[in-house]
């Protein structure tokens, strides 16, 4: 059974393909579990963060969930569609309140907890890295990831650890376990202790084949981590399930038994093909 539980559509500010078209393609690919994780970027809203000098448009949550629920029913005979959201962490309590209110109002099928912004700057853009050494930029990001694990709202998946490396300007941009072993152990142990799912994201964009890297996944397994999800982070139709084969091969070699899919509070283990 094929899964991809981190995707976006034009309901996200950076999405490029309408939701129905994304679902049509997923069905063509034979995906059994398809997770929509539209961006809920309230961290940008509450912290006044700009993207390339412009405010980030906020998602129309009511319109998104209304369409997603209709399509969920329509595709049910062929594919389990999960209507979820990716909630960008910030330490700002105002964002926490908005996230908690959104989750209570719309009851998403799953919640992705991610870190894009650190101290009011998105770790994708050059402004975040300006004046920072690689060690300082990466450490601050990982410390925020650790902080996000104590978010005061429910979540299921810890997403794309290593996001900071995707667009980093350093000659060696890979984020390795050996760079921050104590901090990684703290993060990975906390994920295990909280019963959360560690995402393997195949949209590494030059920072390796997937995020987090294999060395980090091996350490997670050694620390008792057994729940991993797969997400392509597709924002357009041709990226759905892209890179999945490399992810699955690595996970099997490490010793994982399958992909874990969060489905309305139940964690479903989908064995590898």
Structure report:
The protein is an alpha/beta fold and 273 residues long. The protein has one domain (39-62, 85-257): TIM Barrel (Alpha-Beta Barrel), CATH 3.20.20.140. 36% of the residues lie in helices and 22% in strands. The protein contains 9 helices and 13 strands. It has helices at 19-28, 42-47, 61-75, 93-106, 126-129, 134-148, 181-193, 214-222, 244-254; strands spanning 2-7, 31-40, 50-51, 54-55, 80-88, 111-114, 117-118, 121-122, 157-158, 197-201, 228-231, 258-263, 266-271. It has a 7-stranded parallel beta sheet with strand order 1-2-5-6-9-10-11. The chain has a two-stranded antiparallel ribbon with strand order 3-4. A hairpin with a 2-residue loop joins strand 3 and strand 4. Helix 6 (134-148) runs parallel beside helix 7. The longest helix has 15 residues, at 61-75.
The secondary structure category is alpha/beta
- Helical residue percent band: 25-40%
Number of structural domains: 1
Number of strands: 13
CATH architecture: Alpha-Beta Barrel
Multimeric organization: single chain
Number of helices: 9
CATH topology: TIM Barrel
Q: Identify low-pLDDT runs.
A: none
Approximate strand percentage: 15-25%
Mean pLDDT: 96
What is the string of helix and strand elements? Answer: EHEHEEHEHEEEHHEHEHEHEE
Distance separating the two termini: 6 Å
* Principal-axes shape call: globular
């Amino acid at each position: 059974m094929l899964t991809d539980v981190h995707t976006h559509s034009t309901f996200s500010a950076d999405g490029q393909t309408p939701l129905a078209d994304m679902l049509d393609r997923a069905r063509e690919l034979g995906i059994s579990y398809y997770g929509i994780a539209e961006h809920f970027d309230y961290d940008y809203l509450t912290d006044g963060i700009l993207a390339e000098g412009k405010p980030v448009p906020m998602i129309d949550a009511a319109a998104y969930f209304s369409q997603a629920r209709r399509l969920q029913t329509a595709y049910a005979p062929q594919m389990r569609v999960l209507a979820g959201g990716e909630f960008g962490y910030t330490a700002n309590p105002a964002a926490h309140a908005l996230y908690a209110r959104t989750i209570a109002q719309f009851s998403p099928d799953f919640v992705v907890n991610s870190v894009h912004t650190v101290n009011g700057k998105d770790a994708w853009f050059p402004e975040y890295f300006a004046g920072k050494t690689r060690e300082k930029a990466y450490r601050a990001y990982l410390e925020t990831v650790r902080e996000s694990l104590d978010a005061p709202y429910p979540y299921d998946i810890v997403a794309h650890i290593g996001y900071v490396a995707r667009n980093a300007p350093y000659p060696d941009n890979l984020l390795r376990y050996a760079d921050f072993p104590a901090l990684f152990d703290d993060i990975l142990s906390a994920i295990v202790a909280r019963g959360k799912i560690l995402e393997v994201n195949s949209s590494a964009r030059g920072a390796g084949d997937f995020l987090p890297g294999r060395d980090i996944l091996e350490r997670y397994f050694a620390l008792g981590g057994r729940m991993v999800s797969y997400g392509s982070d597709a924002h357009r139709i041709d990226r759905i399930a892209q890179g999945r084969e490399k992810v699955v091969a690595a996970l099997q070699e490490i010793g994982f038994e399958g992909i874990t899919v969060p489905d309305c509070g139940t964690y479903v283990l989908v064995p590898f093909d």
